[in-house]
Q: What sequence folds into this?
């Protein structure tokens, strides 16, 4: 239940708990207002609920005050909670006093009813959290983050704060933002440093001391791909377990996604009804809620990379990128597998070693690694994970194969010399999961202030 702080009562709490006849006080911003001769209506929101609360003003309301009750103005309202005779809401507030806390010039307010395309809203990122879509995105993002922490905390995983500045390229992909401090020649840290692309290498140290751990923080990649699924700054959750193999990693990822998604949907039915409404209005295909419900109520699918390539090669369709063993899976292939072939989330496992990072464990035969990606409808890759190479000699060999100098990661190698364990984990892109759950197509609309090539205005 939503609790209030001080005198203000969140609108969500009022809607849940107020009784007819209660004296109530709310604060918020005007979504819409309608005036007529005898009676006027103001719809107020405060971020706590997908619903607005209706304020009713009688004919005694001052004309000068009415002029100030336009969209965007901030108000403090005192009144009585009454049953509503109108359609659309069961209760409303009969206003006794209205204070305009901050005026809003409706003629120059950038957030007009008609101009709310997601593209336009990106140009007013300071005001877009007031739009209906972003009101809901923010609540779902908040609930998702909370339920992710709760999932791990309930199961004894320790949250490890891994560094944001690091000297290692954890993914070996070279997509690094360099960190400098002025023009010191030897560098602030005495070596070249970067914003982290992943906390995995560091969190592995803690799996080798606390068994079950996770990171939850911002991650940075200088990926110059201007796609709807890539951001230069995104949030990643990386659980890591000692004494675990690839099957354990997959079992955790599946239970985690299904449990967290269920809990978030249960917490915010109003917001999911909104996203369902938007999708049904704009798009064909299965409804968002049908898709989510069916995804989380049955086991996910699982195939090897080799099987997945066979499936793709048999499809009669002109792919933009080639398919077949050895090719790298692109978004179009990932989406086909999850959306059309399996019609549910699917784990793809055992990718060729040259397609994946140096730390992944070599399978028998040494052609593939114990990796897995979780592909979901509409989004493609939502999770990437693996069992890690815990054998010292094999890890050195993997590093050399991937041109990652073993000397730079001497400390990572030492974990394999002093009480090594089979271990593994995965990385979940928070924004990718948000896109999957809300139906939002562009990652720029899932994060408060997106950082993408050419974009850091706010
Ligand atoms: O597959 P990735 O690169 O895996 C890792 O970083 C591992 N260290 C994870 C681990 O095993 N601990 O990234 C993990 C996930 C992807 O599946 C995707 O959801 C997300 O992070 N991701 C991005 N999200 C938004 N923008 C980008 N540029 C992303 N790159 C990866
Ligand atoms: Mg990946």
A:
């Amino acid at each position: 239940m939503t609790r209030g702080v001080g005198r203000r009562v969140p609108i969500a709490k009022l809607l849940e708990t107020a009784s007819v006849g209660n004296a109530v006080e709310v604060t918020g911003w005007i979504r819409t207002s309608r005036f007529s001769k005898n009676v006027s209506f103001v719809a107020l929101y405060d971020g706590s609920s997908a619903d607005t609360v209706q304020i009713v003003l009688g004919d005694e309301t001052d004309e000068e005050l009415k002029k100030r009750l336009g969209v965007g103005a901030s108000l403090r309202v005192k009144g009585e909670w009454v049953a509503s005779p109108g359609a659309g809401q069961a209760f409303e507030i009969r206003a006794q006093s209205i204070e305009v806390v901050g005026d809003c010039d409706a003629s120059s307010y950038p957030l007009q009813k008609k101009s709310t395309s997601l593209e336009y809203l990106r140009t007013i990122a300071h005001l877009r959290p007031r739009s209906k879509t972003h009101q809901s995105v923010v609540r779902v993002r908040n609930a998702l983050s909370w339920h992710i922490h709760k999932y791990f905390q309930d199961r004894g995983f320790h949250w490890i704060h891994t560094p944001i500045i690091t000297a290692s390229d954890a993914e070996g992909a070279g997509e690094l933002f360099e960190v400098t401090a002025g023009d010191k020649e030897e560098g602030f840290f005495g070596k070249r440093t970067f914003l982290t692309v992943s906390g995995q290498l560091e969190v592995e140290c803690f799996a080798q001391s606390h068994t079950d751990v996770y990171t939850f923080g911002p991650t940075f990649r200088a990926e110059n791909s201007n796609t709807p699924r890539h951001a230069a700054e995104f949030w990643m959750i990386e659980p890591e377990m000692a004494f675990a193999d690839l099957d354990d990693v997959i079992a955790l990822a599946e239970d985690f996604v299904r449990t967290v998604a269920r809990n978030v949907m249960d917490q915010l039915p109003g917001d999911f009804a909104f996203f369902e409404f938007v999708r049904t209005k704009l798009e064909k295909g299965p409804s968002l809620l049908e898709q989510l419900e069916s995804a989380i109520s049955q086991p996910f699918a699982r195939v090897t990379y080799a099987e997945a390539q066979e499936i793709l090669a048999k499809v009669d369709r002109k792919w933009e990128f080639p398919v077949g063993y050895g090719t790298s899976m692109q978004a179009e292939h990932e989406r086909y597998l999850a959306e059309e072939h399996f019609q549910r989330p699917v784990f793809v496992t055992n990718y060729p070693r040259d397609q994946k990072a140096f730390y992944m464990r070599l399978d028998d035969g040494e052609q593939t690694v114990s990796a897995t990606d979780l592909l979901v409808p509409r989004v493609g890759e939502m999770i990437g994970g693996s069992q890690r190479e815990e054998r010292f000699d094999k890890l050195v060999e993997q590093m050399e194969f991937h041109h990652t100098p073993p000397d730079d990661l001497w400390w990572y190698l030492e974990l394999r010399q002093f009480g090594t364990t089979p271990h593994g984990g995965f990385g979940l892109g928070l924004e990718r999961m948000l896109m999957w759950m809300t139906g939002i197509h562009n990652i720029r609309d899932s994060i408060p202030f997106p950082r993408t090539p050419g974009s850091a205005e706010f």
User: Anything to note?
Assistant: The chain has two domains: 11-109, 128-445.
